[in-house]
Structure formats: C-alpha cells, structure tokens
Design brief:
This protein has 18 helices and 14 strands. It has about 550 residues and is an alpha+beta fold. The longest helix has 28 residues. It is flat. The chain starts with 9 loop residues before the first strand and ends in a 30-residue tail after the last helix.
C-alpha cells in the first residue's frame, strides 16, 4: 500500500486487493432477496446464480421456467416491519453545550449542493444497509482548504464555511479494504467507486471509470483508472493488467487525526439478511418449482393409442385409418369413429407430491418469520437486555421487542460516535450528547398499548398520579393519531391532569389527603401503612 513517502504509483492489482471480510457476491444476493421484483427476476446473471438450471435441462425449458418465475418477498417484509416499528419512536439528540452549528447538521448532513438529508434519516438508511449486508459505512468530510486564501483561526475557518462538515453513506461494496487496530479503530481504508458515464450523444457507455480513495489518519490519496470494456487485452484503452503501474491523480491532508470513516457493524445474531438469504433462496426455488408443476398439470398432453391389429374391426380398410386421431372433427356436434381397442390418456406430472411441496413451502416461510425470534435470542445475550425495566420485561415474550431494543441501543451509540467524529474534524470541544428515542416502539400499535395497560392494571397498581397522567395521555394521543390538532391535545392533557390528581390517588388507596401547612414542605409520597403486628414506638 502506498504511503506519503512514496511517489503514489502502485500496481493495479495492489489497488484491487480485498479485505477477507469483503464479500460482494453474498451481499448482492442479500440485496436482491430484500428488494425482489425486477432487481431479482430481470437480472439474468443473478437468476442463473440463485435459480440454477437443472442438470440436462433443455435450454428452452429453463428459459420458460425463468420467465415464469415469481418471488414472494417475505424477507423484505420482515426487515421493513422491524425498521418501521423501530422508527415509530424517532431518534432524538440533545446537548447542553453543543456548538450552534450542530442543529444545522442534524437538519441537513448532506454534501453541499446535494439533496437535503436529515441526520436521523441517514442513520435509518445506514441501519437498512446493515440489515442487508451486516455493516454500513459513512464518510465524514469537510470542504477542501483554499490554498490562495489560507484562514488561520478556527473562527475565520468557521466564517468561511470550511468547517461545515457533511456525512455521506458509502456502500459496503465500495469499501474494498481496510485495517483496524486491536481496539477496532481504523488505521487506513480503501474506497473504490465505479461508474459508466456517457458524456454525450457521440460517446458510448462502455467507458468504465474506477476511482480509488485511500484514507489514513491524516491524508488521502486518489487514483483513477479509465478503460473501455469493449477493447481487447493489449489494445489501446483496454483494462490495465495486474502489473501495470497506476499513478495517483490527487492528494491532500485532513484534520481528523483518524480515518474519517465510521462503520455500523451489526452482530451476527442481528444481521437479518444473513439469516434470511438461504431461506429466501430455498423458498424461491421451491415455490417456483411447485408453480411450474401446477402449470404443467393444468395443461396435460393428450396421447392416443390406436389398435391397428388385423384381429380388430378395421376403419376404412385393413389395419384401420392411421390418421383417425386428427382427421376427424372434435366437438360435441360430431361423432368420432374409432377401433374398439383404441384408448386415450393424458400425460401430466403426478399431483400426489403437490400437497407435500406446498406444506414444505409453508414451512420455509414460517422459518423466515421465526428468524426474528432467533435474532431475539441472540440479542438477549447482549448487555442491553439486562438493562430493561420491569415493564418491558413483561413484554419480552415478543421477540420483536427484544430485537428492536438491541437495534435501538446500537443506533443511539453509533449516532454519538458519528457526532464525535464530526467534532474531531471541526476541532470542537468534546460534547456530551444525550441520545433518546428508538425505544418506545410498542407505542406504534394501539392494540399493544391497550393490552399493556390492561396487563399493568391486572398485575400491579402503580401509586402515582403522574404515571397515570402520562400513560393515559400516551394512549389518547396514539388512538387519535395525527389528525388531531396540537391545541386539542393540550386540552386533553390538562383534563387528564385534572382528573388524575394526587388527592384522587390517595382516595383510591383509602387514605385521606391532608394539604401541607404553610411552613411545611409538600409531601410527594403516599403514606405506606405499617405492617400488621408492628407496634408503634412510645
């Protein structure tokens, strides 16, 4: 790998080296089984890999099977449902001592000139990528320094806009190699972007451009390779050979003091498509095979067996009319004349295996939905599960809640780490961020809220008027939905506060409320009756 003491020229095969954990082929399968539709069914190369041709199968038959293939996207449904529930309680980031710049970053973290992207939306997209590929990458960058107008102080750089950082997702397929120390901190990383841009009507789209970006703790180096995919080996404009030297095209330094890439890694147990890919592929092939057999069974082939023996009564002469199968009209208005030994049979796949195949498909489908519970068992071993309160412990029967609890922890911590990386690049003082949200996902379902309320009322009576006020308002807000006005919600909140008072809470326990005297501090706690048999002190 090139370093800053070298000229920047490296062999092409050096640029193309991949990390042992880089697995583009597997990620491609995970992505198409998440997306489904034309990304899978119209991708000829991918279909040959995940929907293979049977041994000795006729090419025309395979082409017809592939044309009739269909995919029921249970994998995408499972992941989308998890993310929708998780984001029903959006991420919130707060800090008392953050620079005034950060609210602007949280509202738009995209590069200059790009479409606006909220910081929370970026994290949501990163989690979706990680659910598909097991990891997601984000690059933090700053505007390049102006060599003709070098600003000195941080204030001057701030006013010049050179500290306006941005965050952009880098697809796992583009981060081809990296190295980290024993603490997981990146020492360097190599990014490769590939594009086929047509510059005008006179150009073709066979021109491939590969851009390599090498990041270290203090600098970056850039190489570009442009070649024609139509040019043969050794021809002008052909793809470089492995031993060809590629010279750098640009180079610069940055202020981060570390590699400005952050990775969101999911544990193996929470990598959804890592568990779903093989099941989705199995269900896809089995369901299409069943559909093909059903299709063939609905269109059987007619076979006619003619008895032309001399012993049988002949039709139109000795031996019978050998063309009688198709030279006589077939309809209810015509009578066909046959030999007494003739017979007709339909050739079709046996239908006895259909029911077994359908049950097998249902079993694979159920296994895909049970993946969430497998993820829950993995997440339950995480320290996040130990912190759950008694209220959420009662809901741990639902594996989805356990998975979402673990994912919420991961995203909240990643958000704080990403903001820390931004602060390092901007030379800001360390800021303590409070990340909340991504935790009350059960609120997204009104039925779940009502069931939880009934369960709490039956299991324990919480002696708190504030608890009841918050819970009742929570339910009212969810039942009414987004159509209610904010002013009406405030009115409902005040009415609930008026109804569930401290005095009413005491009365529910058979106690009288005594207002505090003028010189006495208000009592916020409810008196607890003495245990039976305990004598009062004299």
């Amino acid at each position: 790998m090139a370093d800053k003491k070298e000229t920047g020229a490296v062999q092409y095969k050096t640029l193309q080296q991949k990390h042992p954990d880089y697995n583009e082929d597997y990620w491609a399968r995970c992505r198409v089984f998440y997306k489904g539709g034309r990304d899978l069914l119209e991708n000829v190369d991918m279909m040959r890999r995940v929907f293979p041709q049977h041994r000795n199968e006729d090419n025309q038959i395979y082409a017809m099977r592939r044309q009739m293939a269909h995919y029921t996207n249970y994998a995408g449904e499972i992941i989308d449902e998890l993310l929708a529930k998780l984001n029903s309680d959006p991420l919130r980031l707060e800090s008392e001592d953050a620079d005034p710049y950060y609210p602007q970053l949280l509202e738009n973290c995209a590069p200059p000139g790009a479409k606006t992207v909220r910081f929370g939306d970026l994290l949501q997209q990163l989690l979706l990528t990680a659910m598909q590929c097991g990891r997601a990458w984000v690059l933090v960058d700053l505007p390049p320094a102006d060599p003709y107008n070098e600003a000195g102080s941080l204030l001057e750089q701030e006013l010049a806009g050179r500290l306006n950082a941005w965050c952009v997702e880098v697809q796992p397929e583009s981060v081809i190699d990296w190295e980290a120390d024993r603490n997981g901190v990146l020492e360097w990383a190599m990014i490769c972007y590939k594009s086929r841009k047509r510059h005008g009507v006179t150009d073709s789209r066979d021109q491939c451009k590969e851009t390599y970006l090498y990041y270290t703790a203090d600098e970056w180096i850039k190489w570009e390779v442009v070649y024609s995919e139509e040019a043969g080996l050794g021809e002008e404009g052909a793809k470089p050979k492995d031993e060809d030297l590629i010279r750098m095209t640009d180079r610069g330094f940055h202020n981060f003091g570390r590699v400005p890439l952050q990775t969101l890694n999911l544990p193996e147990g929470l990598w959804a498509m890592g568990k779903l890919e093989s099941l989705a592929r199995e269900h896809f092939n089995k369901r299409c095979a069943l559909s093909w057999a059903e299709f063939k069974a609905l269109m059987p082939v007619l076979y006619e067996f003619h008895d032309n023996s001399p012993e049988n009564q002949a039709l139109g002469g000795e031996g019978g009319d050998i063309d009688r199968a198709y030279n006589q009209p077939r309809s209810t208005a015509h009578v066909q004349v046959r030999n007494s030994g003739d017979r007709v049979e339909w050739a079709a796949p046996p239908a006895g295996s259909f029911s077994h195949a359908l049950e097998s498909c249902k079993s694979v489908r159920d296994e895909m939905h049970r993946v969430v519970h497998q993820m829950a068992r993995s997440a339950d071993m995480n320290k996040a599960a130990i912190r759950r309160s008694g209220e959420s412990k009662a809901l741990d029967e639902n594996g989805t809640n356990i998975v979402l609890d673990a994912l919420g922890d991961i995203v909240r911590e990643f958000a704080k780490e990403l903001l820390l990386l931004v602060a390092i690049g901007r030379k800001d003082q360390r800021t303590d961020w409070i990340a909340t949200g991504l935790s009350n996902f059960q609120e997204g379902n009104v039925t779940a809220l009502l069931d939880q309320e009934a369960m709490l009322d039956a299991a324990v009576e919480v002696p708190s008027s504030m608890f009841k006020q918050l819970r009742k308002f929570q339910i009212a807000k969810k039942v009414l939905g987004d159509a209610v006005r904010e002013s009406d919600l405030e009115t409902i909140k005040k009415e609930i506060q008026t109804f569930y008072t401290h005095e009413r809470e005491l009365e529910s326990f058979g106690l009288n409320y005594e207002p505090p005297e003028d010189d006495q501090e208000p009592v916020d706690t409810i008196p607890v009756p003495e245990a039976p048999g305990k004598e009062k002190d004299s």
